[in-house]
User: Fold this.
Amino acid sequence: MALTKNERRTRIKNRIRKVVSGTETRPRLAVFRSNKEIYAQIVNDVTGETLAAASSRDKDIAKSKGNKTEVAALVGKAVAEKAMKAGVETISFDRGGYLYHGRVKSLAEGAREAGLKF
Assistant:
C-alpha cells in the first residue's frame, strides 16, 4: 500500500534528523510549514532548548502584504536577527522533510541575507 503524504514526510524527516543535529556551537534551524503559516526555530538539541523562534503569525510579519513565499523570506530574516542577538552565527538547516523549494527555500535565503551562515 502506498504511503500517505504525511507518512512519507515523516520518513524523510527521520532520515534527515539522523544526520542533522543542533549543538551549542552549531544549532539547528528547524522549519515547519503548514498550509497557511510557516514557523522556524533555532534549537540546541544537546540541552533541548529553543534559542530563537519566528513565524508568519508574529504581529509585525502578519501585517505585511505579500504571498506566502515572500512572507517566508520575512520569517527567515526575523529568525536570523533573533539568532544573532542570541549569539548564533552558524547553523545547520533542517528542512523538516519538505523539499528545498518554494517557501522553505525562501525562508533559508532570507536567513542567509540577514547574516546566518549555513
Notes: The mean pLDDT is 95. The first strand starts at residue 28 and ends at 33.
